[in-house]
Amino acid sequence: MPTEYPNLTVIAHPLIRHKLAVLRDRETSKKKFKELVDEIATLMAYEVTRDLPVHDVEIETPLERTTEQMIAGKKLTLVPILRAGLGMVDGVARLMPSVRVGHIGLYRDHETLEPVDYYFKIPKTPEERHFIVLDPMLATGGSASAAVSSLKKQGVARIQFVCLVAAPEGVARMLKDHPDVQVFTAALDRELNAQGYILPGLGDAGDRLFGTK
Ligand code: PRP
Ligand code: URA
């Protein structure tokens, strides 16, 4: 769905909208929340990978030889931003089982809302890979922007960012800091509150996934 932001793609499929509605509900259990994040990530992965290059391959069917197409080009790497991004990994990897998974550890300081980094591990030769960064929430955009900057510092050139709920502030921050990175979201919400939470949002994604406060 086109938006006013050139860097934003909203994937508003009815299945995604339905599952997102249940995800937002404060009464949704931790178990159900985890299942829904996983399922929405799978559905979004279909759209996020739409433009991956393919190349011709020769295949012997039981009846004859034919030309088919397979994904070509740079190898894919998923990078969840810890912690909440972890909830999206299996959902995406289900469609691409050979994908590598890196990890970026960041948390938002509750006072300043600035990201604090504590872990970084990605596959060797990152410049040869295509990265998909995963985090359910794009709020101020500080965490997403810092994660993308860390990847670029390692020589990564091809990056997509996938979230479930985005705030306009976060999308604008990504457009300013990383206009080359397309942001995919299931919903573009209204605004941030004074504490940096997305409205209407779904609350604290990490806490709801892992049952902590
Ligand atoms: C949440 C979320 C993002 C970040 C978004 O993580 O998962 O990483 O906040 O906010 P921002 O766009 O303003 O940076 P949090 O800091 O709560 O860490 P956690 O996943 O470890 O709970
Ligand atoms: N992080 C979350 O988990 N939720 C928000 O609404 C904002 C940041």
From TrEMBL:
GO-annotated cellular components: cytoplasm
Pathway(s) per entry: Pyrimidine metabolism; UMP biosynthesis via salvage pathway; UMP from uracil: step 1/1
Phosphoribosyltransferase domain: residues covered: 10-212
Highest taxon in the source lineage: Bacteria
KW Transferase (keyword) present: yes
Regulation of protein activity: Allosterically activated by GTP.
Swiss-Prot/TrEMBL cofactor(s): Mg(2+)
Cited InterPro entries: PRTase-like, PRTase_dom, Upp_B, UPRT, UPRTase/APRTase
Residues binding uracil, per UniProt: I198, G203, D204, A205
Keywords associated with the record: Allosteric enzyme, Glycosyltransferase, GTP-binding, Magnesium, Nucleotide-binding, Transferase
CDD domains reported for this sequence: PRTases_typeI
Positions that bind 5-phospho-alpha-D-ribose 1-diphosphate: R83, R108, D135, P136, M137, L138, A139, T140, G141, G142, S143, D204
Cofactor note text: Binds 1 Mg(2+) ion per subunit. The magnesium is bound as Mg-PRPP.
Broad class of enzyme this protein falls into: transferase
Biological process annotations from GO: UMP salvage; uracil salvage
Entry EC number(s): 2.4.2.9
Gene Ontology molecular functions: GTP binding; magnesium ion binding; uracil phosphoribosyltransferase activity
Catalysed reaction, written as an equation: UMP + diphosphate = 5-phospho-alpha-D-ribose 1-diphosphate + uracil
PANTHER family given in the database record: ADENINE PHOSPHORIBOSYLTRANSFERASE (PTHR32315), URACIL PHOSPHORIBOSYLTRANSFERASE, CHLOROPLASTIC (PTHR32315:SF4)
Free-text function comment from the UniProt entry: Catalyzes the conversion of uracil and 5-phospho-alpha-D-ribose 1-diphosphate (PRPP) to UMP and diphosphate.
UniProt family annotation: Belongs to the UPRTase family.
NCBIfam families, per database record: PRK00129.1 (NF001097), upp (TIGR01091)
Official protein name in the record: Uracil phosphoribosyltransferase
Organism: uncultured Gemmatimonadota bacterium
